[in-house]
Amino acid sequence: MRFKYAGAAYSQRAPIDMTPMIDIVFNLLLFFLLSSSFVQHTSIEVKLPKTASSTPVEGEVVVIELTSSERIFLQGKELSLQDLPSKLKELYSGSDLQRPLLIRADEHAYHGGVVALLDIAREVGVTSLNVATMQTDRKQGK
Fold first, then answer.
1. pTM of the entire structure?
2. Residue 20's pLDDT is what?
């Protein structure tokens, strides 16, 4: 027994709805954006001094950067040496004095600039002071 098909009616394809696929793509994109960890890179050019031993700083830190041209940045924002004590007092208000302070000074920055930053931190009452360095291999010494 033979069946007769209506040729034109069956040769047309049903339209494919793209909405579910677009929804899935956007959901995947949203998932990867929310689940990825964002690394905050500093845009301030600081060449750290080298050392054979170093210890990583744990927890949330306050970062002061001193460039080779003696520019000072607190948490990525440039400020003057005179404004630094008041801004540090704002960050270290109350019982927050245990929060580590990390000084990222360029290896070509003047020693006096680093000492001034350390003095200001002590005046504010910061108890955990750290200086950032670049760790080298002990064998090479470079």
1. 0.59
2. 93
